[in-house]
TrEMBL record:
Single GO molecular function: phosphatidylinositol binding
UniProt feature coiled coil, ranges: none
Organism: Bremerella alba
Start and end residues of each Ysc84 actin-binding domain: 102-226
Record's protein name: Ysc84 actin-binding domain-containing protein
Length: 368
């Protein structure tokens, strides 16, 4: 093999790895959008316990955070990724933008649970606050637990004394809708990944004459429009999105309070992984298996090693051939917990001034 051939093959390999990484990232964002659609449908399926349609009709923005992690005993931690949809001047819903939500809460909290969070923004000021920087609920805008039910507005003050109404749907012991002190932030990197090949800018603005809205985004907008009793917006018209000027903020840091939060995250991840593994054959157990440190007490695994696990889950999630697996809540729960746990470990290491390195190179045995 000539030197030129080797260089060409190396360049091709690097190109393929870059494309694969981009597709894996896009599949992660696509999964978040599809999960957000599922949350809306499930929350609104029973009118007696859903968000009032009248409230959604008046809303200026809606945030959906699927599978937000809350955990810890005595002191808890929240972290999640989701999307925000905002109305334009014609009150049409615009393409989703990605957000992160982080924050701590104080009080007795029995374990870690995956909780779906929905925030209904009732004022333009609160929406603008989110778009222009890091936004703290309860500080930058007043928030309150939202009413539920078709006729809830009759007995609830909806004169916008609160700018944000919050809802949560817990899948375990942890329940409640208090989100004061949590911070929301636009996620520019996720926006770029999701809209990279659509003819739209990273915030969903029209960048070409023929923008193509991702199918998952079109489905989410159609779903939100249906429940907000707003004028129906055809997906192909949604691409012309005039977003307000944004200041790109650095990625948020997971709020940590000692080692309890990451220890509890590890316990929940181990339990969820075991539940998923009970449904799989040996080949899939090996492929989706996690480092042994997940299943035992002691030091936590290196976040870089966990990134390789996330990449495998991303690859499976992005392949339609595995839909029977990836559409199961068990797979989605492990996938989401794995990402959150890795982020928490990375944030904790950064706070302690530690650096994350892969294992040292294997050295040859010393010669006698």
């Amino acid at each position: 093999m000539t030197r030129h051939t080797s260089v060409a093959l190396a360049a091709l390999t690097l190109s393929l790895l870059t494309v694969h990484s981009a597709l894996a990232q896009q599949s992660r964002e696509d999964m978040i959008v599809r999960q957000a659609t599922g949350v809306l449908n499930e929350v609104m399926a029973i009118p007696a316990s859903g968000i009032p349609h009248s409230m959604l009709a008046k809303a200026e923005g809606v945030v959906v955070i699927p599978n937000m992690i809350k955990g810890g005993f005595v002191i808890g931690v929240r972290h999640g990724r989701g999307v925000v949809m905002i109305r334009d001047e014609n009150r049409a819903w615009q393409p989703p933008q990605f957000v992160t939500m982080t924050g701590g809460s104080v009080g007795w909290q029995a374990g870690i649970q995956a909780t779906d969070v929905v925030l209904v923004f009732m004022t333009r000021n609160s929406v603008q606050g989110l778009l222009t920087g890091k936004f703290t609920i309860g500080v930058d805008a007043a928030a309150a637990a939202g009413p539920v039910g078709r006729n809830a507005s009759a007995g609830t003050d909806l004169s916008l004394k609160s700018e944000i109404y919050s809802y949560s749907r817990s899948r375990g012991l942890f329940v409640g809708a208090s989100v004061d002190g949590s911070s929301l932030q636009i996620d520019p990197a996720a926006n770029r990944n999701y809209y990279a090949s659509t003819g739209l800018t990273p915030t969903g603005q029209q960048a070409t004459n023929t923008p193509v809205l991702p199918a998952s985004a079109a489905e989410l907008l159609t779903t939100l429009t249906k429940y907000s009793d707003n004028m129906r917006v055809e997906p192909q018209q949604v691409g012309a999105y005039e977003a307000p000027q944004q200041t790109v903020q650095p990625a948020p840091t997971v709020v940590q309070h000692g080692s309890i939060s990451v220890d509890q995250l590890r316990m929940e991840l181990a339990a969820a992984s075991n539940r998923l593994g009970s449904m799989l054959d040996d080949q899939w157990k090996a492929y989706l298996g996690l480092p042994k440190q997940i299943y035992e007490q002691g030091p936590h695994p290196n976040p870089q090693i966990l990134q390789a696990c996330i990449a495998r889950y991303d690859q499976v999630a992005g392949n339609a051939n595995y839909a029977q697996l990836t559409q199961r809540p068990d797979f989605q729960h492990v996938h989401g917990l794995l990402i959150t746990y890795t982020d928490a470990l990375s944030a904790m290491a950064a706070e302690n001034g530690a650096i994350n390195l892969p294992p040292p190179p294997v050295q040859a045995a010393a010669q006698p």
